[in-house]
Amino acid sequence: MKIARVSGTVVSTISAPIFDNRRLLFCDYITPDGEATGDYVIAVDVVDAGPGEIVLIMDEGNGARQIVGEATAPIRALVVGIIDPVDP
Amino acid sequence: MHLATVIGTLVATERTPGLDGIKFLIIQPLTRDLKPSVMPVIAADAIAMAGPGELVYFVGSREAAQAMPEPFVPIDHAVVGIVDQLAIGPLPTSGSAAKKKRGPS
Fold this sequence. Notes:
The complex is a heterodimer. By secondary structure, chain A is mainly β. Chain A has a single domain, classed as CATH 2.40.50.220. Chain A is built from 1 helix and 5 strands. By secondary structure, chain B is mainly beta. Chain B has a single domain, classed as CATH 2.40.50.220. Helix content of chain B is about 10%, strand content about 35%. The longest helix of chain B has 5 residues. The chains are: A mainly beta, B mainly beta. The interface between A and B is large, with 47 and 43 residues.
């Protein structure tokens, strides 16, 4: 898993059915001391994370499908946790 | 998933079985400030609505095939949604992890 900061949301009405009623969060990957790595990911939220929060990203299809409970789903990146401040 | 802009479509009549009936889009992957990030890729259009110029998001590897009606097809990139609105703040700066104190939960 990786650490990221939620920098915003992606609003999308035309999308694959799996995204219906699921929030897409725009997450910037950061190092444990908060430095942006420059990479980002659009992740499906399953923990009600909001912009500005530091979150845990799981980016693997099999795990993602287990979490959303769908045998076939084009999902890899999920926000699976909201983490407290990291003491580097 | 990452952002991309659709820069064209592509027709390939000679194709391996399993790719039949799949519409291809040429997409330009983007950085967070919508600048080209890596070389353009050819993605399957899993929503059959994305046209040139649209801002979309796409998924890679096995999950791309999972976006298709038949989930076991040789696809490595698929456009899975069109972005209506992208509301993102500035890039996080160092220390943003430490400063953010969560209230009592």
